[in-house]
Each structure stands twice: as C-alpha cells, then as structure tokens.
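WARN no homologs supplied; continuing
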Amino acid sequence: MTTYSDLEQKLNQSLAWMSGQRWFGDKDRSLRHVAIEHMTTAFDGTDPIQLCCLRCEFETGNDAIYFLPVVGSEGDDLRDAFTVEVFRTWFFRGFVDGREVQDGKRSWRWETLQEHRRDVQHVHPDTSTTLRLEQSNTSVVYDNRLILKVFRKLQSGPNPDVEIGQMLVKSGSEVQVPNLAGKVEFTEGDETTVLAILQQYVHNFGDGWGWLLEQLRNRNSGSVSAIALLGRRTAEMHTALATGSTEPAFAPEPITDEDLAESQRRIESELDQTIEGLLQRGALDSTTAESLQQRLRQKLTSLDSLRNTVRIRIHGDFHLGQVLRTVEHDFSIIDFEGEPSRPMNDRRKKWPALRDVAGMVRSLDYAVQTVLREQQDRSDLMPWRDEAISAFLNEYRSAIKPSLGIIPAADEDFASALAILSLEKALYETRYELSNRPDWLGIPLGALERIAGN
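OK structure emitted
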C-alpha cells in the first residue's frame, strides 16, 4: 500500500504532471511543492484507494488545496483515479449505499437527495464517460442519466453551485438548471467542504461555446434568434435569484455610495496591474499604454449609473461555456460555483446583475474573434456580432421587470454601466491571455480600445 512519504515523493517528482492537468486551476503560477494535507485509505472491494487532499505551494501567492484520489499499487505511475473505470463505478456506488468513510475526526460522506433515490438506483454505474473539457473540475456522465461534477480546488463552506441550484429548483422558477441528486462532503471538525455533486444529465448538443462556433463556421445566420433567447433565459435567472427566496443570503441589497467607491478602487487597481503587465511583456509601448490607461480611467465615472439599483446573487462566471444548448433547442444554465480562483466568501457575494451580462457579451465577442482567426475573409462576422449582442441585450431588458431595480432603467445608464463592467471583464481577459495565450491578446486588447474610444 502506498504510504504518505511514497505518494508525496511521487507527487513532487511529478509537478509538471500535476500542473498540466486540465482541472488544475493555477496554471499561471509556478508549482513549487506538494504536501499531503489529508489522506484516507478506502477499498473498492480489493484494491486500496487513497482519497487525498493536497496542499500545493507556489512561487508566489497563497497555497491551494486540491482533491486527488489515487489508485494503484506501490511502484505504479501516478494516476488520477477518475481516469480508471473501476474507481468511477466505486465512487458512484457511494450514492446508492449512502457510504461514509471515517478516518479519525475526518469523514467522507455520500448523500443522495430523497426525491432522487430511485433515479440513482436505476443507473448502471459501470457505464461512465469522463468529459474532456477545459475546466477546473472533473465531469463524469453515468449511463447518460446523471452527471458527477468533482471540485478539484477545494474551499470549505457553503458551495454556491449547491446553494443556487437548489434555490432555483425549489423556487419553482422556469430557469432550466440540472436538478441536484446528491453530493459528497468532506468534514473535519467544524469545517465541511463539498467535494462533488451529482446532477441530472441534460441531453444537449454541447455547451454554448462549441455550439456557437459551429453555427458561425457554417454561416448559420439564424443563430441570432437563439442568442436573443439566451438573453431572455439570463433575465429569468436574475429575476429568480432576486425573488425566489426569503433567505438573507439571497435578499437583494441597494447599491450604496460605498459600494460604488469600492468598485472604482478595485477596477482602477486592475487597470494599473493590466497596463503594468502589458508594459513588462512588451505588448504595448509606453506611449500607447499611457494613452489607453488614461482613456479607460475616464470611463470609471460611469459607475454612477448603477445608483438606484440593487446587488443580487449572480452566476458569477457567466459565459457561453456555462450554458448547454439542449436537444429542445433551448438553453440550460450550469456551473454556479463562480470563479474558482476567488475565495468562497467572494463567490457568494452579491453583485450587480450586469456583471453576468457583461461576461456573456464578452463571450459572444470572443466566439466571433475565434472564428475570424480561422476564417479571415469573413466580412459578415462583425455585423453578426453587433446584431447578436443587440438581440441578447434587448431581449434581456424586455424580460426584466423595472420595479425589481436589477438594472438601470434609462438607456444611457444601462449602456454606461455595461461598458464599465465589460471593461472589468476585458482587463481580466487581458491578464489571462498575457499569462497563458499571448497570441490571443489582440481579442481583449481590441475590446479595451473599443471601450476607451466610445
């Protein structure tokens, strides 16, 4: 059986393997050392399974905790257990059996919601597929009926994906979200961390990103009407989040002067960091960078347009990859955990709803720019982008009741607030591309120039 020291040695000999995994969410930082925070041994009947929580130390910034179950005898290469079918079957059977693995003061507990027990019992768990997606979690589909989402980067406390998903279903809203069927929790002392959730599998043509790229590549102009529908579904989500629960965690709160001042300080800081990064990487010369910085800073006054609106719980990481194009030619919204790089408390904060809207607008632009990189003769794409974004925004606004105060009522205020929140998103995209895909930098830089020039 693999010991602590054996496994730690393998992990630290395999730092490149660890940081190269699809689910590893700290690719922009240099991994320095891995230590086992917790390791519990379970058995799938015969072979040992190490359920590990790993503390990852980096050259810069705070440590991060990752979940990595390991299978295999001593001397085998390091293997993520979710790549092994026998383990995926064992993991699912925990929901059927109500499994609880005790290890001193620690416990690993599988829970199935009562109303979904029959669904779980009728699934054939040995028919599973791991989805190959670029995301910070691992998704396993069982029998084309249920999907397991495993959170790799762990933080204790209420998980927004569980919290928001359950609220939307219980509220009776028409927002299409996968029903929660179960969850796996790790508990130590007073702290509980959600390791995985089991949800209804939504039959689909792929996520919105892949679906839209195919539409654009094939010149399907009818996709504008689908983007308008996505605007309506987004409005329905925000309406449900603002009205679907009386719990304090979901109660809308007025945006105050202090909120506006804090937002301005935050975005100014992000602007300065972004410009500094562009200069350090030689992506812009000093004259161009200074001009862009000054013009963008002048835009921050438009935050005043958010006065007399409210902060609500939002999706928090809303883009085309977070919706599914269903077989009914509709959209199902997924992944409410927010940005995994942010602390859990930040992910549960209330924000202007237009933050989600800005994220989707930027995602639509990214899709168009991606196809333009492939098909440079597509003169139809930029007019399509403008038409699709207008359709999305018009449908969104028409579906939001003004009395809720979710968005600014006046056209000018709506446009101003959206511009500043799109600026914040484009600044994040710029820093991401600088660190990960420098050859894609032109996309967010183009967005910053458009925002600065309007």
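The mean pLDDT is 92.
OK
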